[in-house]
Amino acid sequence: MTPSEIDRIFRDEAGRALATLIRLVGDFDLAEDALQDAFAVALDRWAAGEVPANPRAWLVNVARHKVIDRIRRQAVFRGKQEALVHEIELNVPAADEPPAMLDDDMLRLIFTCCHPAFAPEVQVALTLRTVCGLSTTQVARAFLVGEEAMAQRLVRAKQKIRLAGIPYEVPEREELATRLEGVLAVIYLVFTEGYVATSGADLMRPDFAIEAIRLARLLDRLMPDRAGIKGLLALMLLHDARRAGRETAAGDIVLLEEQDRSLWDRAQIEEGLRLVDDALRVPGLPQPYLVQAAIAALHARAPSYEQTDWRQITGLYGVLLRIGPSPVIELNHAAALSMVDGPARALDLVDAISARGGLRGYALLPAVRADLLRRLGRKDEAREAYQAATAATQLEPLRRLYARRVREMR
Amino acid sequence: MQYLLMIYQNEAEYAKNDEATSQKILAEYQAFTQSIVQSGNYKGGDRLRPTTTATTVRVRDGKTLMTDGPFAETREQLAGYYLIEAKDIDAATAIAARIPSARIGSIEVRPIWEHDK
């Protein structure tokens, strides 16, 4: 087996192997360290040709023995440690654990990483590191922080699991809906960073978008028939399907109105549309992600920018505002409305948001304003707004887009 | 596990409550305390006198320094605490959320440092 094949197996199995191992040994940190040890052994043996039939079971079993070694090496807690070792020895995973058990392990891991006792960015970091199996270096890169700082943050989080008693459990029925929202928020945060990066030279970081979609697919399989999960998965598939059309070879932004729609990934759009239909059949209150997916579906179905059903899109933003009002949705609503009632009416709405002090420091507010002013032919004000938008973003391609708009207005 | 639930609220605002409101909150506290005694979670707890009665002590270079008032001026002050036994953080935060002051102030939930962990 080549190192890259081995690496792929690690990536695929890391989350699941860890999830099971934590249940067996009852300690997050210990399980993670032991799994690293097991990977090291695997790298040696598998490269030499001894590849097990079931790599995950093999990894879990080797790691379990590594846990026992590690406990025995910590001579501090004698007496107690033998009892612990004995217990872990008894917790042998059955050769053929029922898949439902393994699924539960994975859900436990996801819900633990996305526990509300962690700050949102810590939830994202823990999920990327443990559920997705990214390395600490990769997670650090995602947050644009040093590896040392990220390693520290992860260590503290794992300490908190143990010391504050964060349970390794799928929440009880009455808590489940709220906690699931938190998990979906984490997945969506991972996605949005991939869709439009916060800063830097590149507009997109597709790895994160792909990782988020992978997570949502997993969750949809583990918890079927939940409109929120299906809606989020559909939303991300539909957004991500446009990836090839969203930038030029040189890395410049291509706006929705300018995109070559033949570059969109039709197969992925079809999957997204099917999911929206499926989710709409699930009874219950309208889910925000599903409504957003329905908006994305209208864009995906439209033959051109002009022939988009803007009226229905505006209506759906209205639905979103009723479910959970937020200034960001108001801004999107105003932008969509500009295609129905014209930019003047939309500008009033945008200025009303600013007048209330909403979205202060939100980089896209001046950008939307600038676009509306440009369409109204109010060039001087538009130029000023583009300047404000440029100052508000750290992302190079956005700065180039605003500069282009200003040039085009001359 | 054991957790300390620290009750923070704005003393000045709380002092403005009229007699009827104070009585109502007191009754809510009594009912809450009784419920966690009955459920077996209660390990201890007290209401504290306001920070106007606080004294802060430091020892520097062997000398004891005393100052009037709390260590730091903050918007919310420690008003009381409960020591509870709970299965995990979820159980502890669920109990914390039932403390009457959670609706006006905030409750900090901290695990007790257990020395064999």
Task: Give the strand content of chain B.
Answer: 35-45%
Global shape of chain B: flat
What would the CATH topology of the domain at 1-97 in chain A be?
Rna Polymerase Sigma Factor, Chain: A
At CATH level 2, the architecture of the domain at 1-97 in chain A is Orthogonal Bundle
What helical percentage do the residues of chain B reach? Answer: 25-40%
Give the percentage of residues in beta strands of chain A.
under 5%
- Count of discrete structural domains of chain B: 1
- Count the DSSP helices of chain A: 19
CATH domain fold name of chain B: Alpha-Beta Plaits
The termini of chain B sit apart by 11 Å
Please state the second-level CATH architecture of chain B: 2-Layer Sandwich
Family (chain B): Belongs to the YciI family.
Domain YCII-related (chain B): 1-114
Pfam families (chain B): YCII
Protein name (chain B): DGPF domain-containing protein
